[in-house]
Specification:
The protein is α+β, with helices and mostly antiparallel strands. It contains six helices and four strands; from the N terminus they run E-H-E-E-E-H-H-H-H-H. The protein is elongated and about 70 Å long.
């Protein structure tokens, strides 16, 4: 497969190209599906296409104006071309799994306070989560009054960072 050495951003308006050249790219929000969730993602769309495949009566026609940037520069700048995910694909399932595994543990430091309740048993006896993956339920229910604050804080930070990375 031939590597394409540029990423292209298209528009139908010449004024948009002028604004980008003057002010830089500005993200706009797009509604995307992430599993069963609808989320707003700020984005600037770039395509990784050969010039011959672009235009009216070609493979794609995203507009008659475009700005191309060098692929190497794009990679160094953290820019990726559009990636399409299909529902229930391996990548879609991995992203959803990571989101589900990291949402609740981000608040573990707050949940730990429940362990101070008289006759405490386990956190899920006091707070109902629906749904809660088995792995997360095990972590949550393993927290009690003797659990190290440092450990809980470390798990919380880890979950926040993992969750943030999934979204990026």
């Amino acid at each position: 497969m031939r590597e394409v050495n540029n990423l292209l951003h298209f528009t139908r308006e010449l004024d948009t190209v002028k604004k980008v050249l003057k002010n830089g790219f500005k993200a706009s929000y797009a509604v995307e599906s992430l599993g069963k969730r609808k989320i707003l993602l700020p984005m600037v769309s770039f395509s990784n296409l050969l010039f011959r495949d672009v235009g009216e009566d070609e493979v794609v026609d995203y507009g008659q104006y475009g700005i191309g940037i060098n692929r190497e520069y794009a990679v160094k700048s953290g820019i990726n071309p559009v990636i399409y995910l299909y529902e229930n694909s391996q990548i879609d399932n991995a992203i959803n799994s990571l989101l589900n595994l990291t949402i609740i543990p981000q608040g573990l430091d707050k949940l730990q306070k429940i362990t101070q309740v008289k006759n405490f048993t386990k956190i899920t006896d006091y707070v109902k989560f629906n749904p809660i993956p088995d792995e997360v339920k095990e972590i949550v229910d393993s927290i009690d009054g003797s659990t190290s604050d440092n450990l809980v804080l470390a798990i919380t930070k880890y979950a926040k960072k993992a969750h943030e990375n999934v979204y990026h």
